Amino acid sequence: MSREFHRYDVIVIGGGHAGTEAALASARAGARTLLLTHSIETVGAMSCNPAIGGIGKGHLVREIDALGGVMARAADAAGIQWRRLNASKGPAVRATRAQADRALYRAFIRRAVEHQPNLTVFQSAVDDLVIEPDGRGRDAVRGAITNTGLRFEAPAVVLTAGTFLAGKVHIGETQYAAGRMGDPPATTLALRLRERPFVVDRLKTGTPPRIDGRTLDYSVMQPQPGDDPRPVFSFMGSRDDHPPQVPCWITHTTERTHEVIRGALHRSPMYSGQIEGIGPRYCPSIEDKVVRFAEKASHQIFVEPEGLDVVEIYPNGISTSLPFDVQLELVRSITGFGNAHITRAGYAIEYDFFDPRGLKTSLETKAVSGLFFAGQINGTTGYEEAAAQGLLAGVNAARHVRGREPWSPRRDQAYLGVLVDDLITHGTSEPYRMFTSRAEYRLQLREDNADLRLTPVGRELGLVDDARWARFEARREAIARETSRLSGLWASPANAAGREAVAVLGIELSRENSALDLLRRPELDHARLVSLPAFAPDSPVDADVAEQVEIETRYAGYLQRQRDEIARAQRNEDTAIPAGFDYAQVRGLSAEAAQKLERVRPQTVGQAQRIPGMTPAAVSLLLVHLSRPG
Ligand code: FAD
């Protein structure tokens, strides 16, 4: 067979959420990329709930989009119920969530992958990686070998095997090897990787049974319509991209449900000790909720459609690995579910993941040059967390091949920076998901300004195409123009604009204010302000531009304080610690601090100071040592 069929710049293993973003980013960055995955049909498949976004997760989706990724556009093309969460709260925690049509979402991702220049797909299971000494005392990845013995070569490989590595499905006492229900596990690859110098452990996650929606009684449930107007995820998107919107429903477990669960706990693989892996704390199974919150008589369940053309619904809130007969009984005890027909059983899955402290900020493994890990295998849970890591690993794999410096955002630049820094500094003992509370600079890291934070760097990295760049520049200019226009318009108790403002807007005005100053007042928003003829623009201002001007003006004081804090912290953040640095040389450093540093091997002093238990004194000693000449 021809050489070009077997040789690439970058190989991505796995066509899930991390793998597709990795492959697309690598190809967009100019690397000849091969995506190797079990099945082309499952490219972009959603293993669990068909929903994208939510608090913290929506922020990641917008960041992926700002960097040219595909997730937001796929959600726009597949979203059948839309919510703007925390709409009445501060801008830092406002977030978008879309219930997606599973089939439309997958089709969009597959189309994006199939039409991406520089990207080739080959369907196959990968059983091993080719890893050889690089001649400089390190191991380097050279390619991958499939289960049929085909050998593909590349100087960079991104592994995104999700829940498939030594995956084991549990339903009650029954357990079998699988990557997720209906898909094969990656058993041989998991064994081969366990022979390598990676720290491997087990995690678990679970999913609820699916129900035929025609067998439910919606008259006893509470409808939950989507928002109108519907939000849009992508900075390139519009409402016209969305399919029709359908409602979700809310129902509840009953006393009977809890009785059924309590009576069957001894048959639960979680409680019988059959499952060793730790599950996601924030997405507990229904049996977990009944045990942990024993005082609660009922738990809320969101009844969510799986798509426009299918009858299945996803009962969000009853993930379970109880035996099937128990699942049937518990499902039928839920309000409105008396005649429910289960179409697929709920289950838990246990899988191998790698201690993310073995990764650099680029998501390259410290142990093997050119080998990158992304997604669920790094201890995270969720499509958005996986996709964000995939994009980062993909672009850095492409840069590695060209000998370019890796790129990764800092904690003050992106949730992606928070995610990676948390993982590589702290590791994780349970599936990690994103929350806004994880970001100390969350007022800077809003959904609404993800493009302003990241699209310029995405452009430099080769990830942002001309159309996106043109749209971005137009938006950035419109924001600057409107800010400057409003700062040049004045209202005083003596002038016409001021008198109009007092009369029409009902505000008090004791001195001269610019229109921008007036926007700082909580009772005024942009729309009201520009409704005054004196402040009206020549042409209408887009809602997203108005929102940006409003937020940046209203929170200017807080934002500036945060920027000053970031600038102070930046000094340590930029102080690099050489690879292979010997902590024993640092005079006065305690054995405990040295051990902690040795364990994580931080790349910068900033990362070192975030290691749990690291004292300011230890950080100063390190800084003093590093600042010494020679
Ligand atoms: P995946 O989406 O799993 O994709 C992995 C891809 O790699 C697949 O295409 C697979 O075929 C391919 N692959 C694997 N090994 C090989 C190989 N050796 N050769 C070739 N191809 C390979 N997330 C939540 O946020 N909340 C939840 O409650 C939740 N519950 C879940 C329940 C279940 C049962 C499962 C399975 C997942 C659940 N998830 C949940 C997790 C969510 O599905 C993942 O976070 C997300 O899919 C991870 O994306 P990924 O790209 O890392 O991996």
Automatic annotation (TrEMBL):
One of its GO terms (cellular component) is cytosol. It is found in: Cytoplasm. Its cofactor is FAD. Residues 553-624 form the tRNA uridine 5-carboxymethylaminomethyl modification enzyme C-terminal subdomain domain. The keyword Flavoprotein applies. InterPro entries: FAD/NAD-bd_sf (IPR036188), GIDA_C_N (IPR049312), MnmG (IPR004416), MnmG-rel (IPR002218), MnmG-rel_CS (IPR020595), MnmG_C (IPR026904), MnmG_C_subdom (IPR047001), MnmG_C_subdom_sf (IPR044920). The keyword Ribonucleoprotein does not apply. GO terms for molecular function: flavin adenine dinucleotide binding. FAD binds at residues 14-19. It comes from the Bacteria. PROSITE patterns: GIDA_1 (PS01280), GIDA_2 (PS01281). NAD-binding protein involved in the addition of a carboxymethylaminomethyl (cmnm) group at the wobble position (U34) of certain tRNAs, forming tRNA-cmnm(5)s(2)U34. Belongs to the MnmG family. This is tRNA uridine 5-carboxymethylaminomethyl modification enzyme MnmG. It comes from Luteimonas viscosa.
